[in-house]
Amino acid sequence: EIDKLNNIRTFLTFQNGNAIPALDLYREIFEDFELLEVDYYGPDQHGPEGTIIQAQFQIAGTIFGCADSPITHEWGFTPAISIWIDCRTVTDLEHYFYALSEEGEVLMPLDNYGFSSRFGWVKDPYNVTWQLSQP
């Protein structure tokens, strides 16, 4: 059971029913991915049936929340806020980099940028950005 009081976590608001395919992608990429809770819209509810009202998942011990917004917003995800991962190995970094950027976008190619010996920044197919570092 997740302690829902005094809890801070990153929350991802997906549009157009993209929460489920995004969670499927993260489950595929991150071997320690765990879906902790999920509630779906049913018939005659505020959102499209089968989309996510709210979900919580965990990657590398970090809990995230997400939902499918039943409202189409003018805004989406921005690279100004991204998920940062310090990778144990270059192999892990390259796996995440290529898997997350497939059908997405490379914002900064893998390189040594001085602050990290190996770093890359990508946008996944659902517009969530990930900064991947191998210190």
Chain oligomer state: single chain
Main beta sheet: 4 strands, mixed
Say how many strands there are. 8
Radius of gyration from the CA trace?
16 Å
For the biggest β-sheet, the strand order reads: 1-4-3-2
SS element count, helices: 2
Q: Span between N and C termini?
A: 33 Å
Which overall shape is indicated by the principal axes computed on the Cα atoms?
globular
* Average pLDDT, all residues: 93
Kindly estimate the percentage of residues that lie in beta strands according to DSSP: 35-45%
State the order of secondary-structure elements, H for helix, E for strand.
EHEEEEHEEE
Low-confidence stretches: none
Helix content: 10-25%
Category from helices, strands and their pairing: alpha/beta
Explain what the structure shows.
Helix content is 17%, strand content 37%. It has a 4-stranded mixed β-sheet, covered by helices on one side. Strands 5-8-7-6 form a 4-stranded mixed β-sheet, with helices on one face. The protein contains 2 helices and 8 strands; from the N terminus they run βαββββαβββ. A hairpin with a 5-residue loop joins strand 7 (118-123) and strand 8 (129-134). The chain is of the alpha/beta class and 135 residues long.
List keywords for this structure.
alpha/beta, 135 residues, 8 strands, 2 helices
Strand-helix topology:
Blueprint: E1 10-14, H1 19-29, E2 34-40, E3 52-59, E4 62-68, E5 83-86, H2 90-101, E6 105-111, E7 118-123, E8 129-134
Parallel strand pairs: 1-4, 5-8
Antiparallel strand pairs: 2-3, 3-4, 6-7, 7-8
